[in-house]
Design a protein that fits this description.
about 70% helix; mainly alpha; single chain
């Protein structure tokens, strides 16, 4: 087990854990849970439905990030694409709030690929 794999897994788990309030806030706004006491006020029903769908999609992205952390810890080659997918999918589900988690997931993806000789780039000499 290399230090890069452990660091990648730790960063991915940290990113997923730090992003847990995002779907909770989305679901709270939709009226499904009452975690932060967010009142949707006079928001249209369609907006609450979009927030509900976004909340469940963000939970799926969190699970994907945790799967990527497990793959990174196991040293699987699939860790890097899974972590990149989680970072980009999170930007689609909760754009402004997901940016810090996406940066950390991107760093984890970078570290997960550093031990893979197929991913390493070499300098091309002419």
């Amino acid at each position: 087990m290399t230090a890069n794999r452990i660091a990648a897994a730790g960063l991915a788990a940290f990113a997923a854990a730090s992003a847990v309030p995002i779907p909770l806030a989305q679901l709270d706004f939709a009226g499904l849970v009452n975690v932060f006491d967010i009142d949707s006020g006079d928001s249209p029903h369609a907006l609450r439905v979009v927030m509900e769908i976004g909340g469940f999609a963000t939970i799926a992205v969190l699970v994907l990030a945790l799967v990527g952390a497990g793959l990174a810890l196991a040293g699987a080659r699939a860790a890097r694409p899974v972590l990149v997918t989680a970072a980009l999918a999170g930007l689609l589900t909760a754009m402004p709030f997901w940016i810090p988690a996406a940066v950390v997931l991107g760093t984890a993806a970078y570290l997960a690929g550093r031990d893979d000789p197929a991913v390493r780039t070499t300098a091309v000499t002419a």
